[in-house]
Amino acid sequence: MERYDITRAKKSSGRIITKISSIPLLILLLLSSKQTNAQNSLLSDLRSPIIFKGNDSIAYRDPAILFHEDIFHLFYTLVKAENGLIYSYTASSKSKDLKHWSPAKIITAKNQNLNFCSPGNIIRFKDEWILSLQTYPRPGLGEKDKTRYGSADARVFIMRSKDLENWSAPELIKVKGADVKEADMGRMIDPYIVEDKDEKGKWWCFYKQNGVSMSYTYDFENWTYCCHSESGENVTVLTENDEYLLFHSPHNGIGIKRSTNLEQWEDWGDLIVLGQQHWDWAKGRITAGTVINLTENAKFGKYLMFFHGSGPRTEQEGDFDKNASLGIAWSDDLLHWNWPGKPTK
């Protein structure tokens, strides 16, 4: 009978255990590599920062984005010249890969006295989706007229949906309180709704009036006005690390403010202008940046920004209701941004 060498057996067993225990680690590394490649692939496959390109008779403006069940639901202002008149609509498109988008689906009525547009965002409340948007009345505006902004009758609204496809009629949200008549609410545009970071079930509506104004509700029926703060337009608000991050648009570019309490705000980072110096299609203005956090999503792993750019002329020179396009960029930290075709240093 051969003598059993226990020392050699232990060493051999150790090598087997080491090899076996390394297999799960190898699998994790392979999966991580695949996820990273998926991130890089989906974004690097984009050849242009432009999602929808405007022209001499169409403008795409004011994007709002929802990522739900692996589908991007993009809502935006669609401005069209029809029979010599300018109309604004809210429209939507869908995509799974940010590259191929469904045709624009208009979800609001044709009416220059209302012009429902500038969707802010889409939130889930109880068993339905709520989309925020505004009116932008410009009765009689013709395609040959000078740039004209919405009248003093502009107000903020919501629409409701069970399936993100079929939407209710717009409902005025009385953000100044039930006792304030619609006629006395004052001009307001660009609503954006976000849940309070400290009190679940309390919802804030940010909207452009006296800088940015803020009102809150618990049921989307009864609203209480709170306050206002200095800001540009087209506000988006994220809650991160016990802070509110507010993205807003001054005359040109996109700025960021931070606050822990919605009262004191401080500017953060540089003004974001992306590749404007190289983009004739956005030479006039970059604005309306809205951001979603997909940093923990294996397919993307980034913050994604959707925005619109107009040009080559400024909005005042005429590229307001035409030659405005929707674009995309992404970031790891909200301070440094990349986009398709960004020049390398």
Question: Explain this structure to me?
Answer:
By secondary structure, the protein is mainly beta. It folds into two domains: 1-44; 49-338, Glycosyl hydrolase domain, family 43 (Tachylectin-2, Chain A, 5 Propeller), CATH 2.115.10. The chain is 11% helix and 39% strand. The chain has one helix and 21 strands. The strands form five sheets. Strands 1, 18, 19, 20 and 21 form a five-stranded antiparallel beta sheet that branches. It is globular, with a radius of gyration of 24 Å. The termini are far apart.
CATH superfamily of the largest domain: Glycosyl hydrolase domain, family 43
CATH uppermost class of the largest domain: Mainly Beta
Strand element count: 21
| Shape-level CATH architecture of the largest domain | 5 Propeller
Distance separating the two termini: 73 Å
Largest sheet: 5 strands, antiparallel
Low-confidence stretches: 1-21, 25-39
Q: What's the average pLDDT?
A: 91
Given helix and strand content, the structural type is mainly beta
